[in-house]
Design a protein that fits this description.
The chain has helices spanning 3-13, 73-79; strands at residues 23-28, 34-39, 54-56, 85-88, 91-94, 99-101, 111-115, 121-124, 136-138, 143-146, 149-151, 158-160, 166-168, 171-173, 180-182, 199-201, 204-206, 227-229, 236-238, 241-243, 250-251, 259-261, 264-266, 278-279, 290-292, 295-297, 302-305, 313-315, 318-320, 324-327, 333-335, 338-339, 349-351. With 390 residues, it is mainly beta.
């Protein structure tokens, strides 16, 4: 690893937050007009309080789940049904047993669980020993989990087995395995019946690690991704900020037709973790991952790794200050990407990437706090490609 990478990662691990939450950029549409894009979390838009139908609080003991008499989280889940809007009053919900969002909504009437407007609900599993089989399970359908915090869970933060769910605006951190993991049985028929068509967006996911933990299922840093799509089909991971997780930032593993777009992934890789910014595949049947408009930097290993996934497409991404930029297979398609590292590995179909042009890529700023961070320098010949074209 380059010395600059070591210095940068050392500053991250020491606890200083050097990253960025979101960045704007512009690009040119086919009709010649300039359009705005946003990389990283978008501002959260709260559900109107008047739409609330059920209420929970950290100390709730009611049975009506009204604003005046809120329920516990477990009771409110038992009452939620298609079309319910559940507001979670602010404060810390001590998680002493698994919370399962197993209800079934519909596309037109999802079930919404959201922090009460102006307040912040926090689910904290700190009282449980590492490895305890306690998590927040999402096994239902058409559930929307919005604008709350999950931390210190003894295994994964979220374990998603259901379909057609949305996680939006969540803060997920310091869990003992992956922050958010989608997993469905590999032997289900047809394959990908479960754990499919979920959307993870506008979330901040960081410092999830199994470093120093050697109980069953842990790997001293090697099993804790920020966001892990371990199976399922047509899941989407978009506009997230993912950093300082012990294994990979975002991982597609054994999924099919997964979409990774407009994310920021940096500083991943601790102890025995792999340390890739984005891992776009895994063993069979992994295929069809699309990786576009991601900003991937200062990870311990590769910025974006196809990881044996079939038919992976990488378009308009920017990698910088990783050990290497892109690792690609024979059928990986790379087009309009910027690589600011010297090493790329593997053979692939390549179209108009920075290394296929003359000159050397430079940026207006390499300060992560700058709005021009990793924006190609004016007149340098690379302004129309990469994650942040202007």
């Amino acid at each position: 690893m380059k010395l600059s990478s070591l210095i940068f990662l050392a500053s991250l691990i020491s606890g200083s937050l050097i990253g960025i939450t979101s960045v704007h950029a512009g690009t040119i549409a086919p009709d010649g007009t300039k359009v705005s894009i946003k990389i990283g979390p978008k501002p959260f838009v709260a559900t109107a309080l008047a739409k609330g139908t059920l209420f929970a609080s950290p100390t709730g003991s009611g049975t009506t789940c009204s604003l005046a008499s809120p329920c516990s989280i477990w009771t409110v889940i038992s009452k939620a049904k298609s079309g319910s809007v559940v507001f979670l009053r602010g404060g810390t919900y001590a998680v002493s047993k698994t919370i399962t969002f197993g209800n079934v909504g519909s596309a037109g009437a999802p079930i919404i669980y959201e922090s009460y407007p102006g307040e912040s609900a926090v689910f904290d599993g700190i009282a449980n020993p590492k490895g305890a089989k306690i998590a927040i399970n999402v096994s239902g359908k058409f559930i929307r989990l919005r604008n709350f915090e999950v931390k210190n869970m003894p295994m994964q933060g979220f374990w998603i087995k259901g379909t057609d769910n949305v996680l939006d605006g969540l803060h997920v951190h310091h869990n003992s395995l992956s922050g958010i993991q989608v997993y469905s049985p590999y032997d289900s028929f047809p394959y990908n019946t479960y754990g499919s068509r979920n959307v993870i967006k506008n979330c901040i996911v960081h410092d999830n690690f199994d470093e120093g933990t050697m109980v069953s299922g842990f790997a001293n840093g090697g099993n804790a991704d920020g966001i892990s799509i371990s199976s399922g089909a047509n899941n989407r991971v978009e506009n997230n900020l993912v950093y300082r997780n012990s294994d990979d930032g975002i991982d597609a593993w054994r999924s099919t037709d997964t979409y990774f777009g407009y994310n920021i992934s940096y500083g991943n890789g601790l102890a025995n973790g792999n340390g890739n910014g984005i891992k776009a595949g895994g063993i069979s049947p992994s295929r069809g991952t699309i990786v576009e408009h991601n900003l991937v930097y200062s990870n311990r290993a590769t910025g974006i790794d196809y990881n044996a996934g079939a038919s992976v497409t990488m378009t308009n991404n920017t990698t910088w200050n990783n050990k290497q930029s892109y690792y690609k297979g024979s059928d990986t398609v790379l087009e309009y990407n910027i690589s600011a590292e010297s090493l790329r590995s593997g053979g692939s179909v390549e179209v108009d990437n920075s290394w296929q042009r003359s000159g050397t890529v430079t940026f207006i700023s390499t300060d992560p706090k700058s709005t021009n961070f990793l924006v190609p320098s004016i007149g340098g010949g690379f302004q129309d490609i990469g994650a942040k074209p202007k």
